[in-house]
UniProtKB/TrEMBL annotation:
Keywords: Membrane, Transmembrane, Transmembrane helix, Transport. This is Major Facilitator Superfamily protein. InterPro entries: MFS (IPR011701), MFS_dom (IPR020846), MFS_trans_sf (IPR036259). Residues 20-494 form the Major facilitator superfamily (MFS) profile domain. Its main location: membrane. The chain crosses the membrane at residues 20-39, 59-80, 92-115, 121-139, 146-171, 177-195, 215-234, 240-261, 282-303, 315-335, 342-359, 371-391, 412-429, 468-488. The lineage of its organism: Bacteria, Bacillati, Bacillota, Bacilli, Bacillales. GO terms for cellular component: plasma membrane. GO terms for molecular function: transmembrane transporter activity. It comes from the Bacteria. It is a multi-pass membrane protein. It is found in: Cell membrane.
Amino acid sequence: MSQQIHTSALVKNKIGIPQYLIISFLTIFAIGAQYFSNLSYVLNQGVIQEGLHISSEDILLPSVLSNLAFALGVPLGPVLTGKLGLRKNYLLFTFMFLCGSVIDLISTGIVTLIIGRVIQGLGSGILFLTILPVSLRAFPNKIRNLFLFMVITGLFGASALGALCGSISLYTDAWRWLFLLNVIASLLCFIIGFFGLPRQEEPVQEQRKVDKKAVVLLCFTFLTLALPLCHLSPHGFSSIYVWPFLIIALLSLGLFVYVDLKAEAPLVPFRTLKAAKPVSGTIMAVVSHASLIIAIAGINGFLQHNMELPYLNLTYFYFWFFIGIIGSAIVKTLLFDKLGAGILGMLGSVVMIYVSIQWRGIEPDIPLPFLYLQIALLGFGVSMVLVSGALGTALAGDIHKASKRSATLHSIRNFAGALLSPFVGWLLLRQNTFHYQEIKQNLNIESPPKQLELSVKKSAILGAYHDLFTLLLILGLIMLVASVVKMMTGKGRSLVKKEKQILQNE
């Protein structure tokens, strides 16, 4: 902790700008650049596919492997920061992200695209828990609730802007400029970090001697997962490239958890999530993250395959997603200390349930204003629940172990997200095939005319999206239950401490 206070003071003295603004910039543009890339790639991968002449199966690989690399980097961030110090670690992996962005910018095929995205994912994953905890401590007590506004608008906003720019990319039929934005963002982070972060830091008081066996097992687990996750969507669980490697990865993961639980300085401190308060918060964060993945996959496919929404309207659609996130940031900033994570999580969960119910029966003739309202509500609800769960978990219990609880939550959350994306792709293909066969049987036609065939295919994929939104509804109910439990365990600590509490701590 003393190191972080020392770091903050130096930043303020050297630059002459409030330290929390410097750290906020370094946080948003370092981590947000990866979130931006993830969502923009979901939208514009068709443009990249045509530009680089990549097959429909191969175009999915960069996203799958980048998400895995990011999830691997998250638990490694605190360890490397403890060894290298904040400045060296931040600059090293910001430069790594910059290199990945440059490779993607000049990419000529699937191999270079994968290499660039994996480098980006690993670099930003390590940066995640390097700089995010520092940004919370950098805010002065009186305005610490503004940290919530920064996190939601900066990080969730980066995802929304990624989707927005991805739709613009479809409209302009150009994609390299998106990676150019990543190059600019990481270059700015490197320059500002180079001059803004201190050259000399106080020695870290608590050295984390992490068990090397745990690190090896974690890396082996992720490497073993790469092959089956890349083959899951097109080939399914029955493929020889999927189920054997999933079994090996599952055994390796179980062994990692066992070794890490026994370790004195665990890589992922699972033991910090024993009580109901942090467990319920973790469920809120993990399930809301999963909900976002499912919702974006479903609604984006519906807009392009069923509504055939013009690209310009698609841009407006994701603009309203961003508006919903800003609304959540304002509400969260003003009310978190007054109401607590549980009540705000309940509010977000109810909103998510409403959107899920509406989308379970969505049809191509839905009026655009209703659609814009619903995506705004989705942005509001999912960011409300996720940040409530994440911050509620960090502040649940001994404040000195807040960073460990946060590290565990985000490691689990990003690991689950990396696994879920290929699963959603497989589920959509499976349900699409099921509904297609079902409709053909009901029509009693083996080889329907071309026009009817097109109508059958659209009906089948619409049924698959409805199934996906049913799953979204189930997740919304889980979020609501977890939020209720969170509320029943008490409001928890406030971000902004009262003057009496500060004097007592001193």
